[in-house]
Amino acid sequence: MHRLTESIIDNATIILIIAHPDDEAMFFYPTISRAKRLHIICLSNGGYDGLGEQREKELQRAARRLGASATCVNNAALQDGPHAWDPSVVAANVGPWLHAGAVVVTFDRYGASGHANHVAVYHGAAPASFARRGDGVTRDARRRPAARPDETRLPVLRARDGASL
C-alpha cells in the first residue's frame, strides 16, 4: 500500500474503482478532489431502489465537476444490493481499464462500510491490478491504512517507474 502523495496526485492518472454512484463522494472525495487526472469506474448504476438511471446521471455530473471522466459498467451480474458480487466478475470488468503508470484507488478489504458490494470491489479490483503488474508493484494488504481523514481505508495499488499494473 502506498500513500497518495502530492507527487502522485499531480503526476499520475488516478483510477477510482467504486461500486455505486455516490461512493466517490461518500468515501473518496478528500483524495480525488485533488487529482489532476482522474477516471472513475463505477460497477453498478446503484439501481437497487429503482433510481439507477438518475444516480448514473448524478455520477456523470459529479465527475464533470471534478474535471474527471466516469464510466458506469452496469453489468447484469453486478447489480446494487445486499448480495456479494463474484470478485472474478469484478476483475473481468475492471481489467480493461487498468494501464501502466496508473494509480488504482478503491475500497479496503472491509469495503469501508462493510457493504457486500464494496467488499467485492476490493477482492476483484486488487487481484486484477496485480495481475496486470510487472515486478514493480508493492503492497501490504495485511495492514489497515493509516487513519488520516483523506486516506482512511483506501488501499492504493501503484506500479513503480512504468511497470505494468
Mind sketching the topology for me?
Blueprint: H1 6-11, E1 13-18, H2 23-32, E2 37-42, H3 52-66, E3 69-72, H4 87-94, E4 103-105, H5 116-131, E5 156-158
Parallel strand pairs: 1-2, 1-4, 2-3
Antiparallel strand pairs: 4-5
Helix pairs in contact: 4-5
Keywords for this structure?
165 residues; alpha/beta; Rossmann fold; five-stranded mixed beta sheet; 5 helices; 5 strands; globular
Net shape: globular
Largest sheet: 5 strands, mixed
Within the largest sheet, what's the order of strands?
3-2-1-4-5
Put simply, the count of helices is 5
Instruction: Name the poorly predicted regions.
Output: 134-165
Helix proportion: 25-40%
Structural class: alpha/beta
CATH topology, what is it called? Rossmann fold
Q: What's the number of extended β-strand segments? A: 5
